Structure formats: C-alpha cells, structure tokens
Amino acid sequence: MTSTRERQRAAARARLEREMTTRAEGARKRRQRNAYIGAGLAVLILIGGGTWLGVSVLGKDKKTDTPAAAPSGCQWLPDADTASNPNLKDVGMPATDVPKSGKQLLTLNTTQGKIEIEMNVTDAPCTSAAIAYLTDKKFYDNTKCHRMVTEGFKILQCGDPSATGSGGPTFKYAEENLPTGQNPAYERGVVAMAKTQSPSSTGSQFFLVDADIPLSDGQTTQGLTADYTVLGKIVTGLDVLDKVIKAGAVGEDGKTAAGDGKPKLEVKITSATVGAVQAS
Questions:
Q1: pLDDT, position 94
Q2: What is the pLDDT of residues 79-101, one digit of tens each?
Q3: Cα dist. 278→118, 122, 154, 223, 229 in Å?
Q4: Is the N or the C terminus of the chain less surrounded, counting Cβ atoms within 10 Å?
Q5: H/E element, 104
Q6: What is d(CA 204, CA 6) in angstroms, rounded to the nearest whole number?
Q7: Interior CA angle at 182 toward 154 and 147, to 5°?
Q8: CA torsion, points 164, 166, 172, 175, in degrees to nearest 10?
Q9: What letter would DSSP give residue 269?
C-alpha cells in the first residue's frame, strides 16, 4: 500500500509535469507569435521601402518631365443608392484594367458648337477610362450643361443627365492628377471633374474653365480647392465656351441674372465620342 508521503511526492511530480507542459506550450505560442510579428514587420518594411521608392521616383520623374507610373488598375466604388438619389443612372462599371499612357480626344457636339477636349490618359488614366466608358454608353448624349458660375471664377459644368447637379452613374472613383501647388490651379481651357466634399466621389460631371483660377492660401477664390481631378484641356471650342460664359447665368426662372445658376444660353450635348488612345 502506498504511503502518504509517496502519494504526496507523486502528486507533486504530476503538478510539476503539468506546469512544465504549460510553460512549453506558452513558449511555443510566444515563438509562433514573434514569428508572425517578425513577418509582419518585414512586410511593413517592404511596403515602406516601396512607398519611399515611389515618392523618390515620382519626384525624379517630375524633374525630368517623365510621366509618373499609373496605377495597375482602377477601383470603381458602387454608388447604387437610387432610393435616396433617383438621379443616378445605372450603366454598369468600366473594366479595372485601363490604358495607362497617351492621350484621347473627347468630342462634345453641342447646340452651341463643337468642343474637343484632349484627355490626359497618362496622368488621369482612371478618369479618362470612366469618361470613355460613359461616352460609349451614350451617357452624355442629349444632356444639358446645368450650371454656370460667373462670379469669382468662370466655369461651365456639364455631365449630369438629370441636369439637377446630383445626377451621375452608379459608381464613383478616386481623384487623380490634382493641381496641388500650381498657381493658377486651373488654367483657362482646363477641364476638371466635379465631385462632393468627400474623397473618391468623382463621377460623370465635369467643368470647363473659361479663365485662370488662381490659388490664395491653399484655395482659389470662392473657396474652390485644388482637389478636383484635371482631366485635360480644350483644344477646339474655346470660342464656344467664351460665347456661353459671356451670355451669363440665370436663376431657375430663366430670366434673373445670377452669379451661380444655369447658362442663359442653353448648351445641350447632342452627342459625345472618344477617339482611340494616341501616344503622347
């Protein structure tokens, strides 16, 4: 029969074995966790190194006038809440793999004359792809340029099939090719994309700039900031824009002059086309 002392010794050995097993398991888990952390740090270092390299290359490219590398693909963000915004028009989404360099010609045939816009595919590849896609879907055909601003700056805004200012496609995307640090931020003849105050809210609407919009303390007159995508520039039809801007803007009644209203001289885009990408 086992003595009390021997039973106590056996129990002590059992407790010690359990403690050793627990400690070994804890050590194994710590080694595993440290391995994960080490791997994570390695990934972060690689990402950080890649980011630094990207900045360095971009800075170098800017100095040598070599265009920056475009993203490998475009991200289209769903904006399909047609219940709260019935002015959104569902035409699907563009492909994510898009042309990354060159230029394209966007032609707007309007009731006031033809306007041709050279789209900068190299610096605004996703925006150019979105415009080309929407044009192919006849999104802009028979739409009115719904807004004109003549006080503070001079622009004509188009691209909303509903002509309400809240219309667009059921997808959005990020801003690109921003005129940050440039003065004027938006030169005469520039075509830039409209958006809300939120980031990645660019859609189908765009504005044509009739006069230089200078920057002052980080933003332009009337508070327009340098965070609107520059799509390209007007190469034909500045005289059409001049004529429409000169006629002025009016309120909803179509008669009362307004600094921010709709064009007194109605501008309807009867058709829009985009040509093939051409080398820069």
A1: 97
A2: 877 788 999 999 999 999 999 99
A3: 10, 11, 30, 36, 21
A4: N
A5: strand 103-110
A6: 86
A7: 20
A8: 90
A9: E
